[in-house]
Amino acid sequence: DVSVSEIAAGLTSLFDDIALRARRDLQLSAIDELTLRASSGERYVIRPLAPSRTSYLYLVVQVPRNTAWRRNTNILVRRLNEELTSLMDAIDADE
Description:
Blueprint: H1 4-26, E1 34-37, E2 43-49, E3 57-63, H2 70-94
Antiparallel strand pairs: 1-2, 2-3
């Protein structure tokens, strides 16, 4: 079995790779969400937090089958970005 942290790490790495290729190959300036659906019907949603920063954090959500997620992840990303602003400022200052 794969642990939750291993899934999250793999998904964020996949997001980084897709976002890089989208910018490089398709000239898409920003990817705001990646959604993957498993054969069981579950979805994995990856959303970058504070994507304009040099340090990236991600929200990774496992969504049960037949469950809405977009409005809830929009609200959560907005709230997390508000709370993380001072933390991200400190991280960016150290780089």
